[in-house]
Design a protein that fits this description.
Distance between the termini: 60 Å
Number of helices: 10
Radius of gyration: 28 Å
Shape: globular
Strand content: 25-35%
Largest sheet: 7 strands, mixed
Low-confidence stretches: 82-89, 94-119
Mean pLDDT: 82
Oligomer: single chain
Number of strands: 21
Helix content: 25-40%
Structural class: alpha+beta
Length: about 425
C-alpha cells in the first residue's frame, strides 16, 4: 500500500479558481475518474476527477478555497496493480499502424454540437453533455441542486419552458424579453458588475412565487408597549446584568401561537394532487441581510424554545449566513417566514411568499404614537405589520383574524406569557 497525492491539474490560463463543491470525504473509497471536487471560474465550472483508485486518507481543501495547478486536493491510500503495468507495456508495444487507424476513426466521428457559455454554471460533465445533445446553453439553465448546481431534471424543465407541443408538432415559444430602444451608456457614464451569486439563485424562485401564487397582503398595527417595557427590563437573576433580546424573538414566539390557532398558515399546497399538507412542526424562517444577498434560514422547533433561546439562535444562524457556513438544508422545511425591516426603517411593505410556505409576515420599524386613553393623552409603541398569504388556501376573513390574534399575543395580555 502506498500514499498517493491527487493534485489540481493544468487549468491553462486560469488562476485562483474557487472550489464550490467537495464531493468526497475522508475514509471514502474512490475509483479512477470519480469526481472529487468542482471548480468554478468566471466563465465555467468543471469537476476534477481522481487519477487513481483507493481510500481517502485526508482531504486537504474545502469549499471556498482558491486553488491553482499543483495544489494538493487529497491523499489516497492506493496499491500498485500488476495489470496496470502490463497494460502500459502492451500500449508501448502496439505498432504505429494501429495508432494511425484509431486516430482516423476518431476523426470521422461527427463532433457534438457546441453551445457557447454566456456565464457561470455548475453541472457535472454528464449533465453538460446531455444539455449539449439537446442544443441547450447550460449557463442559462437555473439549477435547483446544492450551490445552484444543474441536474438532468433542470435541463428537461428548461427545454419544456422553451418549446410547446401543438397537434404533435414541437414549436418554440416566442420570447417576451423587453429590448431597450437606447443603451444606458448613451445617456452618461455607467458601471457594470456581476449580479451576486445568492441573488442569481433567489431571482427565479421569487419570480415563480410572484407569478404562480395569488398574493393578498393585509396591513395592520399592533400596540406593543407592554411587550417593549417587559423586554427592556429583562435581567439575569444571578449576575444582575441586563439581558438583551431582539424583538424578533418575541414575534417568532407569538407567531408560533398564531400558527397553532390557525393551522392553514402552517401548511403547504401539493400542486399535483391539489391536497393540503398540514405541518405538525414549527420551524420559523427569517430573512437575513448579508453582503452576499438576502438569505432565509429556518429556526427549528421554535415552540420548544424560550424567548432568550430564540434570540441566541437568531444571532448564531445570522452569523453562519454571513460567513457562508450554513448548510443548504437549513433554507428548506419551514412553517412560515418573518421578514423584518425593524433594524433599518420603514413601515408597511408587500413581502413575497417563500414557497412551499403559504404565508409570510413583514415587520416594520416600531414608532411612538400619541393616543387618548381614559381622557389622558399617552404615548404608545406601535409595531406595523404586513401579512402576505396564498389566497388559494387562506381567505381575507381568516387573514384578518390571524392579524388580530397576533396582536393579542404581542399585546398587554400575552406579553409575559410569551416569555415563559
Amino acid at each position: 500500500m502506498t500514499t498517493t497525492k491527487i493534485t489540481i491539474p493544468d487549468m491553462g490560463d486560469f488562476k485562483d479558481v474557487e472550489v464550490i463543491e467537495v464531493l468526497v470525504k475522508k475514509g471514502q473509497i474512490v475509483k479512477k475518474n470519480d469526481s472529487l471536487i468542482t471548480l468554478e471560474s468566471d466563465k465555467s465550472s468543471v469537476e476534477v476527477p481522481s487519477t487513481h483508485e483507493g481510500k481517502i486518507n485526508e482531504v486537504k481543501i474545502s469549499v471556498g478555497d482558491k486553488v491553482n495547478q499543483g495544489d494538493i486536493i487529497l491523499t489516497l491510500e492506493t496499491k500498485s496493480s500488476s495489470n496496470e503495468i502490463k497494460d502500459k507495456k502492451e500500449v508501448q508495444q502496439k505498432p504505429k499502424s494501429q495508432k494511425v487507424i484509431k486516430q482516423s476513426t476518431i476523426e470521422k466521428q461527427a463532433p457534438a454540437p457546441v453551445v457557447p457559455l454566456s456565464g457561470k454554471s455548475s453541472a457535472s460533465p454528464n449533465v453538460r453533455k446531455f444539455a449539449r445533445e439537446l442544443g441547450a446553453d447550460i449557463s442559462k439553465i437555473p439549477g435547483t441542486q446544492r450551490s445552484g448546481r444543474v441536474s438532468n431534471a433542470d435541463v428537461k424543465k428548461f427545454i419544456r419552458s422553451q418549446v410547446s407541443v401543438d397537434q404533435g408538432q414541437i414549436q418554440k415559444k416566442e420570447s417576451s424579453k423587453h429590448i431597450e430602444e437606447y443603451k444606458h451608456e448613451e445617456f452618461g457614464e455607467i458601471k457594470i458588475e456581476e449580479l451576486p451569486r445568492v441573488k442569481k439563485l433567489s431571482g427565479p424562485h421569487l419570480v415563480r412565487s410572484w407569478t404562480e401564487i395569488p398574493h393578498v397582503t393585509q396591513h395592520d398595527e399592533i400596540d406593543v408597549t407592554e411587550m417593549e417595557q417587559f423586554r427592556n427590563t429583562l435581567y439575569d437573576y444571578y449576575t444582575g446584568e441586563k439581558i438583551k433580546v431582539t424583538p424578533l424573538a418575541f414575534i417568532a414566539k407569538a407567531l408560533v401561537s398564531a400558527l397553532k390557532q390557525f393551522p392553514n398558515f402552517n401548511a403547504s399546497l401539493d400542486p399535483n394532487s391539489n391536497k393540503v399538507i398540514y405541518k405538525k412542526y414549527f420551524h420559523i424562517g427569517f430573512a437575513v441581510d448579508t453582503p452576499h444577498g438576502l438569505m432565509v434560514p429556518k429556526i427549528r422547533d421554535v415552540d420548544q424554545m424560550s424567548i432568550q433561546k430564540i434570540g441566541e439562535e437568531l444571532k448564531n444562524t445570522s452569523q453562519l449566513c454571513r460567513d457562508l457556513k450554513i448548510d443548504k438544508k437549513e433554507f428548506f422545511g419551514g412553517s412560515m417566514t418573518i421578514s423584518s425591516l425593524g433594524g433599518i426603517g420603514g413601515t408597511h411593505f408587500t413581502p413575497i411568499i417563500n414557497p412551499p410556505e403559504v404565508a409570510i409576515l413583514g415587520v416594520g420599524k416600531s414608532f411612538d404614537r400619541l393616543v387618548k386613553i381614559k381622557n389622558k393623552i399617552v404615548s404608545r409603541k406601535i409595531l406595523p405589520i404586513s401579512l402576505s398569504y396564498d389566497h388559494r388556501l387562506i381567505d381575507g376573513a381568516e387573514g384578518a383574524k390571524f392579524c388580530v390574534y397576533l396582536g393579542k399575543c404581542l399585546g398587554k395580555d400575552f406579553a409575559f406569557k410569551l416569555a415563559i
